[in-house]
Amino acid sequence: MTAVSAIGQLNARTGAPTAGTGLHPAASEGVDVLVVALAAAAETSAREDTEEALHPTPAPRRGAVETALAYGVDVAARAATAGFTGKAGETLLVQPPSGRAEELPGKLIYLGVGDESVQGMRKAGAALARTTRGDAKVRAAVLDGLGAEAQQAFLEGFFLGGYRAPRLGKTPAGPPMAREMELTGLDPDALRLAEITARAVWFSRDLTNLPPDVATPEWMAAQSRAAAARAGLEITVLDEAELKRRGFGGLLAVGSGSANPPRLVQVSYRPAAETGAHVVLAGKGITFDSGGISLKPRDAMMSMKMDMAGAAVVLAVVEAAAALGLEHRVTGVLALAENAIGGSAYRPGDVVRTYNGTTVEIGNTDAEGRMVLADALAYAAAELSPDVLVDIATLTGAAALGLGQQHGALFSNTPGLLRAMEQAGQVSGDRIWQLPLVHEYEYALESDTADLAHVAPPALKFGAGAIVAALFLEKFVDGVPWAHLDIAGPMRAGSDNHETAKGATGFGTRLLISFLRNATFPPKAQDAG
């Protein structure tokens, strides 16, 4: 990750436009890229100049005029030729004139920042990260004069846009992010928050991107131990024998067909003064999902190394909570198993007894996520005394079908919690959309042989798969204020797009960090909506 540091805010210009502002480096400083911002032209109802109407001139921000003079470039003409409008994420590259190549940085980048909104700055940061790959030292005036939220968004976009998935083997992954970036007018708190958040997203992406022969349940438990050691967290790992002794029937059933036995990890951050709430995060951690006996088609199986994305997010968020020194106690519960095929694998028609004693008739072994979460949620509700319980999971194709790859699905039994989550989604960039808990649909979970069926029977032709899965999970939270995040759609991306990198996205990490930083948690009995 690029090392980011501050240099002084630009001096106010007085007199001639060439009067120094502090942006231009001396040759000895080793800066090889200069970056200044251009905003989109202001909207206007009428333009007298036809050419200006067709090619509105981007609005210069601090440093733009003097760098244009230093490089001898007519920015308006160059922008019109290149179709550069100042839209967030656009870049316009200028090289120094031949006579000044020795004294000026080798690249001048005009970076489009749009309307300088939080989302626009996030896009701009991601674009700059990709444009400066392989460079040594970048100096930029993009943040000069902006508020802390816009600065944090730009920096998060930069760090996340520069991410590359880990590659195993001899083939190089490509040029790395720029080694250093100096920013004029940088807010140190914005940098701190952006770095902690981005490191958490990188961590969750790395865990999720690694192949399933590496990322087994025991390997994930080992990564949890390492994270706990780094951050000073409390950790407990339950192995197969302990899971049997304590009655984690759902987790054991899902993992029963694999040579890699299941694990349950509990990792906790405790603030020095426990004046806040206790928030428990439960993550689905299916390290590979074959579908079990209800086997998936081959193509659908290829991305199933990422079915542990929820657990990866939870681990990253608990470590980030410690780095941020949050006031709330945060506990993560990672339900880790591999859903494989074998002589001992669980079957359709089996009846499984979960942690809280509820029996579940298995209708489809490929609906394994709700089984491991049933145990995790029941355990958290019964043993951890949470004020708030949140689960995150790549749970249903129905959520992805309904919302696509840009939004996660949100369910909750508590109106105030819904509002807090939605606000966190708007602020963080991890966008979510509320779906209803339609209790009239609970008849789809009726069973003749157990307390519950865990999927609607095919003959019912019911649909509403994401809602039915959420209704199933609600049976295990024992009335605790609870939110369910179904991230099956946005958990992976097929290509780079703004701050989202190809592969695992780490979706939900920023959302939950923002939620923990900003939400207030009333007592359980007080939140009536």
TrEMBL record:
Residues 364-371 form the Cytosol aminopeptidase domain. It comes from the Bacteria. GO terms for biological process: proteolysis. Its EC number is 3.4.11.1, 3.4.11.10. Mn(2+) 1 binds at D289, D366, E368. It holds the Pfam family Peptidase_M17. Keywords: Aminopeptidase, Cytoplasm, Hydrolase, Manganese, Metal-binding, Protease. This is Probable cytosol aminopeptidase. It comes from Arthrobacter jiangjiafuii. The lineage of its organism: Bacteria, Bacillati, Actinomycetota, Actinomycetes, Micrococcales.
